[in-house]
Amino acid sequence: MKNILKYNKLSLLTLLGVFSIAIISCDFEYDLPEANSIADQTPPQADFQSAQGVGVAEEWKDYTFSNLSTSATTYLWDFGDGNTSTSVDAMNTYPGEGTFTVTLTASDNLGVTSVVSKTIEIVEPDAPSAIIPVIGEAGFEDGDDSCGTAADGRDCWRISGGTIFGITSSPVNSGSQGAKFDAGSNRVGYQALTVSPNTDYTVTIYYTIKTAPTGSAMRLAILGNAISNASEAEAAIIASVTGNDQSDANTYVPLSVTFNSGASNTIAIWIDSNNVAESRVDDVSIVAN
After folding, report:
1. CA–CA dist 212, 132 (Å, integer)
2. CA 278, CA 180: separation in Å to the nearest integer?
3. How does DSSP classify residue 46?
């Protein structure tokens, strides 16, 4: 019985030793999955939209880019002119007119990328049309109520501190009435107008002066801003011209002044004379050059 137990014990130890050897000698090998071994369930999709700048100066050279990509974490913009950016949304100033290919590369954390390219055309916009103001009572005719009562063709030309001109019915350049600047009386006409800044304009009037006494003159001036009193006129003048044609009291001749409105969007027309001889004015007009 003891021998049997001894044998069994020995057999058990032998089996355990063999099993241990088997475990020790066995090589356990397994592969870890690589980062991209499983398909990206939400790959990035690159997309964007663009808009050209508008406004003053050269903002038309500026383009803004809105990023519409999905499932992406990093971005690389190539604007097609040598400039790049890694911002989510981007802005680029182009050197001038031309056609450029803009490329956006969108990537996710797994290294998957999506690329989209779009072509944009940079075009300098046409300059906006200049404002051509409407001159109220340009012919000094009654019936125009744009500045007051329709009964008086002078209402658009009044200014505090200044004596308004009179009205004449003969001679006239057109219509039935004209403005009359009496001799020996300081008469003035003033009207403020809205214009485009930094624009060249020409204002024209038609005038005639009685032949005597000689030495009379009609003045057409442009003020660089609106004024509230006639006493402010001289300091505000930015351009003026004087007419002294006294050859024919019944024939109107044109008198024009050209000026640039500068930074202002308001100018004013100023008309007066040196009061030597009776003078008349008709048909005031303004054009952009």
Report:
1. 37
2. 7
3. -
E strands, the chain, are 48-52, 62-67, 74-78, 84-85, 90-93, 98-107, 113-122, 163-164, 166-168, 178-181, 187-194, 200-209, 218-223, 237-243, 253-260, 266-273, 279-288
Q: What is the pTM of this model?
A: 0.63
Would you give the DSSP letter of residue 45? Answer: B
One-letter amino acid at 262 equals G
Q: What is the dihedral sign for C-alpha 166, 169, 170, 173?
A: positive
- Tens place of pLDDT per residue across the chain (289 aa): 444 444 444 444 444 444 343 333 434 344 444 544 556 689 999 999 999 987 556 789 999 999 999 999 999 999 999 999 999 999 999 999 999 999 999 999 999 999 999 999 999 888 789 999 999 999 999 998 788 777 899 999 999 999 999 999 999 999 999 999 999 999 999 999 999 999 999 999 999 999 999 999 999 999 999 999 999 999 999 999 999 999 999 999 999 999 999 999 999 999 999 999 999 999 999 999 9
Q: The tokens of 262 are what?
A: 């500068």
